[in-house]
Amino acid sequence: MSTLMTVSRLDVRYGQKLAVNQACLDVAAGTITTIIGANGAGKTSLLSGLMGLAARSGSIVFQGRDVSDEPPESKVRRGMILVPERRELFGSMSVQDNLLLGAMAVKATRHSRRDRLDLVYKKYPRLSERRTQQAGTLSGGERQMLALGRALMGNPRLLMLDEPSLGLAPNFVNQMFEWIVGLREEGMSILLIEQNARLALDVAQYAYVMRQGEISPRADAAEMRSREDIAAQYLGPRRKA
Ligand SMILES: Nc1ncnc2c1ncn2[C@@H]1O[C@H](COP(=O)(O)OP(=O)(O)OP(=O)(O)O)[C@@H](O)[C@H]1O
User: Fold this and answer.
1) How much is the ipTM here?
2) What's the confidence (pLDDT) of residue 236?
3) In testing the pocket of ligand 1, which one of 10, 13, 16, 17 has its CB within 8 Å of the most ligand atoms?
4) Which of 12, 198, 225, 240 has the fewest CB within 10 Å, making it most exposed?
């Protein structure tokens, strides 16, 4: 399987604070790679470092090209697209305008924007029904749907999802993860950051653990799920069926 992105010795700093320490990771094309870890372990900082949204050093090779020093907008144009933890939608704008913003950074003709919009509406009919509604009036689940739809408008090659389960009702979490699996089945490569390790390890092929800014070597997700130390720290008690 070919490698889509290779990250080597990535450091992310906030002033004196080193939030990510010499992180190395690979994302294989067409897979879901997850990074699990407790609150504050540095997962969000790692994504910020990858996108160039925080001070960082180290190297990022994407589709064979060194993009380490490129600004965020150029990474977006290459298809590195992040759905941030806080979703960052524009609450007073309509659903459709939020979606169209997702196509702004990429070179898209009006025609191809229209096609992508149709595709997103077909995937998420609820967004189509609410296309004229203000984003701020959507439910938590719908907002997450919109954030995902907006990312898809940018035609991602690597979709980076920061805690997609956060703040969602359990039913909607399951729905969200079905979409994530569906996107991968269509060939999308996904980097999934999750505190809900059980869910993440169930859908991923590869996994890393982050602890206090340091990232583990890569493991098969299935192998990681069966490790007792991981189960004890991150998986919690199994829910009764
Ligand atoms: N803007 C910032 N300025 C200073 N320190 C920060 C900033 N953002 C994060 N940190 C610190 O960096 C460390 C890693 O935080 P980060 O948010 O990356 O962890 P996380 O694993 O994503 O946790 P969470 O799940 O809560 O987002 C924490 O100690 C946090 O307090």
Assistant:
1) 0.92
2) 67
3) 17
4) 240
